[in-house]
Amino acid sequence: MTGNILLSVDDVVVDLPTPRGNLRAVDHVNLTVEAGRTLGVVGESGCGKTMLSRAVLQLLPKKAKLSGRVMFDGQDLLKLSPEKLRRLRGRSLAVVFQDPMTSLNPVLTIGTQLIETLQEHLELDDAAATRRSVELLAAVGIPAPEQRLAQYPHQLSGGMRQRVAIAIALSCEPKLLIADEPTTALDVTIQAQILDLLAREQQRRHMAMILITHDLGVVAGRTDEVAVMYAGRVVERAPTPALFKKMRMPYTEALLAALPRLDTAPHTPLPAIMGRPPDPTRPLKGCSFAPRCRYAVARCQTDKPALEAAETSAHQFACFHPIETHAGAEA
Amino acid sequence: MMHQSVPSVRPKSSGALLDVDNLVVEYPAGAKTVHAVSGVSLQIDRGETLGLVGESGCGKSTLGRAVLQLRRPTSGRVRFDGQDLTAMQGDALRLMRRRVQLIFQDPIASLNPRRRIGDIVAEPLVISGVKDPDERNRRVHEVLSAVGLDPTLVIGRLPHEFSGGQCQRICIARALILNPEFIVCDEPVSALDVSIRAQILNLLEEMKGRFGLTLLFIAHDLAVVKAVSDRVAVMYLGRLCEVGPSEQLFARPAHPYTALLIEAIPVPDPDVRPTETVPTGEPPSPIAPPSGCRFRTRCPRADQRCRDEMPELRAVAPGQFVACHHPLI
Question: Does domain B16-99+180-265+276-322 fall into CATH 3.40.50.300?
């Protein structure tokens, strides 16, 4: 592995106590993100992708139990004091959530929220912070930024609110931005604009980014690497082109096939994945995807496949019967 | 004697089952007026699926409800099987409603959490006066099996015991129990995960064939709409931009807004670099829609004429109609 690793998630487990028993939301996950690179984390609801990001941010629910290690920028986040963590979050580790209304304070103006963040982390006087705020709003494509400073979140549209949330996240030049379903609540034309904006700012600032989404289409053209999660585990991880062209994990294949596409004729039956994900409070002995997998054999029900490397160390998958890649297939 | 286990499919007679003519829906917002639907006309043939796409706030759900008279239109006419729904009142409308149904976006929220699945699915029968409990029971079993659920395992349970996908199956069963002819599906898969979405789309297609249904399928996702629709109507800020056969409309969009929507879809292929989307900005408020063409404020082709003159739907290709002064084809 190269030496420029910004974030490393080692053997992270997140357990949530529920009335129905322990729910293992994240099950022994290992991930790394290099400085300036983008990682897409893809999975369906309940696969643990959001809990994983919360574990990195140290923003898990109070009752959650976390084990493993999260190293960010040379520091072990699990060992940091709450005060040091608070200094880190918002400064070098920033986040954009799905619903901007939950991250923006409804009773404070846009200006107050931006300026507060800037002054909390950087030593700026009021005039400098205001100037910086206007620049940031302009950079995220908000028209008439001076006027916006005096407005409240409810006066903006959903797309504009998400732009403000991104401006706040970018305000202190973070080294890593975690974007958790940043466009799911938005319309398709606005979604494209926000994804463009994130990609542009990521490149310009040479910032690392984790893009969490349920949509394989969103990560396809916009990430360097993708990790596919299912039932709390990373089941396949590869450089983005390899994942789409030479996918090995049957779940990844099924997920992509189940997606309606514009290039198929109307009324073509979709190859749906039968059944549904397993109950996370009743962990399966074998592979979690085995009950829905068309390649599954007896061993898949009894043994849990580990995430292991294929022909290149960058491409890993957790499957006993991976999809064969065609001999002589192009790289 | 011939015995058929599958319910008979209605004969495919020609002609429009649903005919919407110049429908207008406005409602007050304080002292102002929201122009939710502004003069929409469309027809759906018997046995056809018409997809209706547009972004949030474009009026597509309002249109769906106004078609079923769940919201009374401000003006315009809705004819169903030749009868004018907009002129119907009371019992006549109630009787007519047995022939039309609605499926909503949020399947969990549209099931009463305190009632058992068997009662929920049987309720339309109770309301329509089927008094024999055995008959009701038989029909509930039949329709639950049709949507892929095991009736004996399901009828005694409560909605919270089911996942989103299963709840949507239950909603579909409830919509089918009166053997309707026409169903408005309002974003029926938007709240579901990809793997479940495909199951429900396949189920809707299967039910359409089996029960001889005609569908108005409302969604914001073009790929989802294309998967099930014979024809597609694109709506923007209360008006139709374009109507045409699915395949043709996606291959050769005539309206700049249709083209923008197609371009904005993220493609699950790393070789397709996302195009930096040219037209920026957001839809204006339906309280104060722009003059002339409603898309002109975001349209790269807009000129003075688009400001002055409202474009009417006109044919650009066989079956394809566009409301644009400067169409792409």
Answer: yes
